[in-house]
Amino acid sequence: MPCTASTSSAAASRPRTRTRRARLAGAAVAACVALASVTLASAQAPYEPPGDQVMIGFWYDSADPYYDTPSIINQKLGNNVPVFQLSQQIPLPPFNYTTGAGGAAPESLIERSATDAAVFLTIYPTSFEAITDDDFTELGKQILDYQDNLNRTVFLRYAPEMQGSWMTYGFDPVGFLQSWTSMYTIVKAVAPKTIMVWAPNTPQGYPYGQQYTQYSALSAANQALLDTNGNGELDAGDDAFSPYYPGDDLVDWIGLSIYYKGVPSDVQNTLQPDGYCASIITGTDPSDNSVITNWYTNYCANKPEKACMFAEAGAAYHTNHTDGVSQAALQQAWLKDCVTSQTMLDRFPRIKLYMQFEYEKEEDANNGDKDFRDYRILNVTDVRDEFIADLASLSDRFSWAQSRAPPTSISSAGAPAATNSAGSSVIQAITATTRPRPTTFPSLFGYTSDGTQRAEWAELGVMVAAGVVGAWTVMKTL
């Protein structure tokens, strides 16, 4: 029934009837307003912050030699970050108790932050063919454990940057769409509150040099999907995203990998052009002003029921090419242009999460050289202080996590005892141990001293011995 209200001119001679109709019309209008409000509210994406607020997230490096944690990040910022990103493979490799490799992501570090921050779990397939339905079911169970037993909101970013052959599963839209559909169906059936994030790579440079022999080697079905402009080949005029988009009914949030690595060279420390991020997401490559696929209009503005994010983002300081501008100048320019810009926030209101890539790593430069790049913004005092000041000046625009005591026990099956030999609280299931531990024995209870680890092994021996004695005693009575 349409939301319209009117009164007939014939009712003018009947004031009581007219009043009654006016009341009915008013009620109809009120009902329509209420319905519209409900519709608008329901159009919001899950976990989307209210109004014009946005969130800052961090993808941190907990490995040797950095050992970064959510608690350290919160302490440095003076605020509780609302979203922390972790990653793992699928099929999930078993945890290696000697090297600390494999196993589930160390979600326990988020528990130790004593906040209600959301878990942002990125899943990298080894290959689509290697994944079974059971693998997706186990992933769903892991997420359900986070949701039900730990009371966490969980974002799931599956097979990101799927357009590129630098990923083992990349440059295969047919395989991606099939795998995404299976993943979505199975994980949502097990853990229906999971927030599904579809996140391609930046359209800059698309099709990333794949248009030659790599494109020719693809199946006819893949070639047909990728040739969006129908000219019989893959080129910069083709849509960088649509061949891989699963459909609105299979996506909750829409992300993008976006970085600044230098213009014109990706091994030099130069300041980024003004409006760098705004240009990229609206269809212009700032390096040469060429036309690229418009991410924001097509996938954010035109999909108001979805929320958008920079799923991983940052500015690279080239530590083995220290000529040019300082790290502070380079990264402050990035933050002021792409994250804490009032203009950026107002112009692109559907971007609700900015995920900082807080890593230092070696990458291949465009010229083939190995380039060591530092994306971290909290390890340089000037960058961190400027970032904190900018956040404070925009305090009403950012949503933060709330403090919450970490759990002292885990009810899920397979969890260890409530405390270890040092009396420390166990705050995550056995499958989420802190890792890696490359030089000492691994501990189910996080980073501990060698003495504590030896005590844990002794406790294990006592428990095993007690179990054997108990079983022997029971058998005697049978």
UniProtKB/TrEMBL annotation:
Keyword Cell wall biogenesis/degradation found: no
Residue positions of the active site: 161 (proton donor), 312 (nucleophile)
SUPFAM superfamilies documented for this protein: (Trans)glycosidases (SSF51445)
Keyword tags: Glycosidase, Hydrolase
Annotated InterPro entries: GH, GH26_dom, Glyco_hydro_26, TAT_signal
A Gene Ontology biological process term: substituted mannan metabolic process
Key word 4Fe-4S present: no
Listed Gene3D superfamilies: Glycosidases (3.20.20.80)
Protein family per UniProt: Belongs to the glycosyl hydrolase 26 family.
Alphabetical list of PANTHER family matching this protein: GH26 DOMAIN-CONTAINING PROTEIN-RELATED, MANNAN ENDO-1,4-BETA-MANNOSIDASE E-RELATED
Protein name: Glycoside hydrolase superfamily
Organism this protein belongs to: Rhodotorula diobovata
Taxonomic path: Eukaryota, Fungi, Dikarya, Basidiomycota, Pucciniomycotina
